[in-house]
Each structure stands twice: as structure tokens, then as C-alpha cells.
């Protein structure tokens, strides 16, 4: 059998040579003075080595070295900043990278490979050279904390899982009809009212303080993950309107409800939208985005934008008057008006680029705005309009969908079954898209909506190993990998006695966290 390394995602190339690197001698690591590692990575390496260290470390231990190098090249072209080279010899393992991200990913690969064999009587790795780099620059996962909330500890554990799979974007869904989860100090009513709802006989909810969000951003940064917050608008905003009823088209009391089962979102009787003609709406949004921009250092703000209930605008005299003044024939144009105004706030006042979901791409959206496509065919349509796009086609990427018929029994009929093998074969590049437009597809995110995943245990069940299959689809070259090979490597990684990601205790759902 050809020697292989148990690494997920599969590396771009591994050239095996004769011999084995005997790990039972232990590992000692160092870096030259010209290649000092970030403190966070140094601490992670130290913590890991204490776990895989033998009872006594002989003088002839394996030397683990981290070195800086110029970007390696492939066919004469520079590799991405996240690339690295891992050279495994009988007495030395050398990690070379031109960036801190490259070093970090080299460590993730080495850690996976060593941990997978460490429990064996005579652990070893095949001698050879790894050269690795990502296929797509945008490799993400989206977590919905609005429908059901998670603890800070669980989210950090999720970030650890993302980092081990070389995912680099954490899209954090912080508001929706069912809850507002981000502390906004200038508008405390958003969490005083919007973070809580009745669920059965209990008061359910909670929110993340700005200190907690700062902590999560820093934790992610140490793992080379950007955290991108999402605040939904102009629809999916019942929680915000419950706290600010004057910003709805009708000044009425709005009750925050639990997620309704077996009913498409577009048919929910309680859905409302921000009034597109109310200047107070844009002031609230400016205040919210300003505070979030101080907490989150990513250059992006996700502003939702999907599934706007148009009926509220059609029946609103102010919105109809605005449409007449601007010459808009449809509420689709009014939605674009709304998103353009919010984008202008983010770009001119906060120096942030917005991202918006779209189920029907239009050519009148802001040029700089990233399109987040979730409906089949929309990623290709967006690229053909010259739009930079994240392709999260729900038929291939939604991890809240059931993975088998047994899970599907408890889900609404509109949820398709999404097995791990289908996710593994997902290609963010839409079939038939012209090659000259491939550069406009940044990559993808795997969304995890939580209407039907109410607690952390159910989230854990939904996420793995499908997130690992998704990560390989985004990182590894399309050619030269196989689903059977993925299963072989994943089984080797998870066969070890010590779990890779210990589960975290769930936070009480009825208190703020």
C-alpha cells in the first residue's frame, strides 16, 4: 500500500520516500531567530507536545523545526499565503511557510497525522514531503445563534474544529425573528426585550456581551479565522421590532415566537419587515453596525437581505409613497434601495464591505457588495453579472438538513436529505460557469441553522463528519482525491482513544451567557 498521511483536508501533494520517522523517540521543537512564531501558536505547540510526549525524551528525539521561506511556487506561479511545506525525515520534521497562516496550517496537518498514530505501539510517519495550499480563499461555516443560543465554550470548541479543518471564515448569525443575541450598548432594549421569548412554560434566551464577543474574535484570530457578524434586515427582524415597534410599517406590539415547525418561512403569519421609509430604521442600523465594527475586526459585515416579507411594504402608505417618489415599480426595487442605503452606511462611515444573501440576483445592487448565494443557479447568475460571490447552495451545504431518512422524520418536508457523500462532492464552482469567471467565486460556507437543532448535543450530531467533508471540498484539489480516501483518513484520525474535540457543557438556555 502506498504510504499516506491521515490528514483532513487531504494535502495537495505528498511525495513519499523510503523510511519511517519513529515518533516514539519524542519531539522537540525550535525556530530560528529569523522565524519567530506568534505567541498563540507557540503556546498551542507546547500544549500539544506535552500530550504526545513519551514518559522520557531521549537525546535522539525528533527535531521539529519551523522556518520562514519565500512563497513556494508551483509551475512558476506563487502559491497563496496559506500554503506550507512539511518535510518529514527520519530525525527531523521541518515546517516551512511564508506566512503565519501557513505555519498554523502546517501545525494542524502535523498534529492530525501524529495524533492519528500516537496510540499505536510503535508510532511513526512515512518519510516524505508535503506541499499544501487551498483551492479557495473563502472557506467558512455559519452558525445561527439567533434561533437557539450556544455557550461561549461551545463556540470556542467549534472554532477549534474549524481550525483543525483549515476553515477560515466564521459567519455568526446574531439576529433573526426569534432572537437578538448581540449587546448594543446604545440600544439596550435590543437585548432587554429582543433576546427573550416564551418557549413552552419557560423564558428562553440570552445574548453575548461585547466583552464575550471580543473574546471570541480574539480566540478565532489566534486560529486564523475571521469572524463576520450578521444582523438580518430588512426582514427576519421580529426580535428587533419587538424592541422597537415604532420602526415597523405598523406601530403594533410584536411577540417573539419560537421557531415554527413544518411551515416555510415565507408563510409564517407573524413575519414583519423594517419600514423602508422610516429614517429611524437607518439610524438604528448605523448605531448597531458601528458598535459591531468596534468589536469585529473583519473587513465585512453581513446584512442578511433574504426572504423579506413584501406584503408589509405593499400595505404601508409611507413605503408606497417612497416607491412613487423614486419611481420604483416593485418591492424588489425597494429592497435594493434599503440594501444600498445600509451598504453606504457600512462603506463610507465604517470602511466595511457588506455581504447579503440573495435568492434572486439583481444587477442594481452595490458593486462592492459580496453576493451570498444560497439558491441553486444564483452563484452562476451572480458571477455572470460580474459579482464576487460566496456559493452556499443549500442543496449541497446546509448542515442543518438531515443526513439520512431517520433524521428526516423529525424535519419539515421541504428539507432535503443531505448525506455526507453528497457534501464531499460539492464544487463551489457552478457547473458550466465560464473559466474566466471562476475568479469571482471566492468559495463557500456551510450554514448551520438552528430551528431544528435546539441544543449543543444536536448541533454536534449535525456537524461532524459532514463539516470535514465540506472542508476537503474547499481546500483540496478536485483531482486526486476520493470519498473512500476521505473515509480512510477520517477513520484513522478519529480511531485514537482520546476524542479530538471534547464536548463542552451546555449553558442554561434560560439565562444570559
Automatic annotation (TrEMBL):
<dbReference type="InterPro" id="IPR025705">
    <property type="entry name" value="Beta_hexosaminidase_sua/sub"/>
</dbReference>
<feature type="domain" description="Beta-hexosaminidase bacterial type N-terminal">
    <location>
        <begin position="6"/>
        <end position="133"/>
    </location>
</feature>
<dbReference type="InterPro" id="IPR029018">
    <property type="entry name" value="Hex-like_dom2"/>
</dbReference>
<dbReference type="Pfam" id="PF00728">
    <property type="entry name" value="Glyco_hydro_20"/>
</dbReference>
<dbReference type="GO" id="GO:0030203">
    <property type="term" value="P:glycosaminoglycan metabolic process"/>
</dbReference>
<dbReference type="Pfam" id="PF02838">
    <property type="entry name" value="Glyco_hydro_20b"/>
</dbReference>
<keyword id="KW-0378">Hydrolase</keyword>
<dbReference type="GO" id="GO:0004563">
    <property type="term" value="F:beta-N-acetylhexosaminidase activity"/>
</dbReference>
<protein>
    <recommendedName>
        <fullName>beta-N-acetylhexosaminidase</fullName>
        <ecNumber>3.2.1.52</ecNumber>
    </recommendedName>
</protein>
<feature type="domain" description="Glycoside hydrolase family 20 catalytic">
    <location>
        <begin position="136"/>
        <end position="477"/>
    </location>
</feature>
<feature type="active site" description="Proton donor">
    <location>
        <position position="307"/>
    </location>
</feature>
<comment type="similarity">
    <text>Belongs to the glycosyl hydrolase 20 family.</text>
</comment>
<dbReference type="GO" id="GO:0016020">
    <property type="term" value="C:membrane"/>
</dbReference>
<dbReference type="InterPro" id="IPR015883">
    <property type="entry name" value="Glyco_hydro_20_cat"/>
</dbReference>
<dbReference type="GO" id="GO:0005975">
    <property type="term" value="P:carbohydrate metabolic process"/>
</dbReference>
<dbReference type="InterPro" id="IPR017853">
    <property type="entry name" value="GH"/>
</dbReference>
<keyword id="KW-0326">Glycosidase</keyword>
<dbReference type="InterPro" id="IPR015882">
    <property type="entry name" value="HEX_bac_N"/>
</dbReference>
Amino acid at each position: 500500500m502506498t504510504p499516506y498521511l491521515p490528514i483532513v483536508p487531504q494535502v495537495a501533494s505528498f511525495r513519499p520516500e523510503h523510511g519511517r520517522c519513529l515518533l516514539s523517540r519524542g519531539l522537540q521543537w525550535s525556530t530560528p531567530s529569523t522565524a519567530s512564531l506568534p505567541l498563540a501558536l507557540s503556546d498551542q505547540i507546547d500544549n500539544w507536545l506535552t500530550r504526545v510526549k513519551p514518559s522520557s525524551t531521549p537525546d535522539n528525539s525528533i527535531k521539529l523545526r519551523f522556518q520562514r521561506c519565500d512563497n513556494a511556487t508551483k509551475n512558476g506561479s506563487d502559491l497563496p499565503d496559506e500554503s506550507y511545506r512539511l518535510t518529514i525525515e527520519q530525525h527531523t520534521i521541518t515546517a516551512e511557510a511564508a506566512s503565519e497562516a501557513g505555519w498554523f496550517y502546517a501545525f494542524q496537518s502535523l498534529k492530525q497525522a501524529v495524533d492519528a498514530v500516537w496510540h499505536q505501539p510503535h508510532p511513526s510517519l512515512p518519510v516524505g514531503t508535503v506541499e499544501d495550499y487551498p483551492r479557495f480563499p473563502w472557506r467558512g461555516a455559519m452558525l445561527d445563534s439567533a434561533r437557539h443560543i450556544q455557550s461561549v465554550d461551545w463556540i470556542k470548541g467549534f472554532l477549534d474544529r474549524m481550525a483543525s479543518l483549515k476553515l477560515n471564515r466564521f459567519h455568526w448569525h446574531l439576529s433573526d425573528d426569534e432572537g437578538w443575541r448581540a449587546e448594543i450598548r446604545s440600544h439596550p432594549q435590543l437585548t432587554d426585550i429582543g433576546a427573550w421569548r416564551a418557549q413552552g412554560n419557560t423564558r428562553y434566551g440570552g445574548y453575548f456581551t461585547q466583552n464575550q464577543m471580543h473574546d471570541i474574535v480574539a480566540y478565532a484570530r489566534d486560529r486564523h479565522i475571521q469572524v463576520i457578524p450578521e444582523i438580518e434586515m430588512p426582514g427576519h427582524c421580529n426580535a428587533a421590532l419587538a424592541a422597537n415597534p415604532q420602526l415597523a410599517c405598523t406601530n403594533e406590539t410584536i411577540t417573539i415566537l419560537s421557531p415554527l415547525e413544518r411551515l416555510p418561512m415565507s408563510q409564517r403569519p407573524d413575519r414583519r419587515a423594517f419600514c423602508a421609509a422610516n429614517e429611524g430604521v437607518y439610524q438604528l442600523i448605523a448605531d448597531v453596525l458601528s458598535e459591531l465594527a468596534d468589536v469585529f475586526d473583519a473587513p465585512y459585515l453581513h446584512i442578511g437581505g433574504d426572504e423579506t416579507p413584501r406584503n408589509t411594504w405593499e400595505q404601508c402608505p409611507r413605503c408606497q409613497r417612497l416607491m412613487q417618489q423614486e419611481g420604483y415599480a416593485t418591492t424588489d426595487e425597494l429592497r435594493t434601495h434599503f440594501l444600498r442605503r445600509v451598504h453606504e452606511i457600512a462603506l463610507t462611515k465604517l470602511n466595511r464591505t457588506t455581504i447579503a444573501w440573495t435568492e434572486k440576483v439583481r444587477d442594481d445592487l452595490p458593486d462592492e457588495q459580496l453576493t451570498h448565494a444560497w439558491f441553486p443557479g444564483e452563484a452562476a447568475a451572480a458571477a455572470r453579472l460580474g459579482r464576487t460571490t460566496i456559493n452556499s447552495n443549500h442543496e449541497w451545504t446546509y448542515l442543518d438538513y438531515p443526513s439520512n431518512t431517520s433524521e428526516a422524520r423529525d424535519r419539515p418536508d421541504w428539507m432535503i436529505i443531505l448525506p455526507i457523500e453528497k457534501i464531499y462532492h460539492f464544487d463551489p464552482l457552478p457547473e458550466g460557469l465560464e473559466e474566466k469567471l471562476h475568479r469571482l467565486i471566492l468559495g463557500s460556507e456551510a450554514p448551520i441553522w438552528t430551528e431544528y437543532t435546539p441544543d449543543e448535543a444536536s448541533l454536534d450530531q449535525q456537524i461532524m463528519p459532514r463539516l470535514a467533508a465540506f472542508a476537503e471540498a474547499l481546500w483540496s484539489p478536485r483531482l486526486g482525491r476520493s470519498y473512500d480516501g476521505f473515509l480512510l483518513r477520517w477513520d484513522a484520525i478519529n480511531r485514537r482513544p482520546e476524542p479530538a474535540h471534547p464536548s463542552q457543557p451546555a449553558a442554561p438556555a434560560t439565562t444570559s451567557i
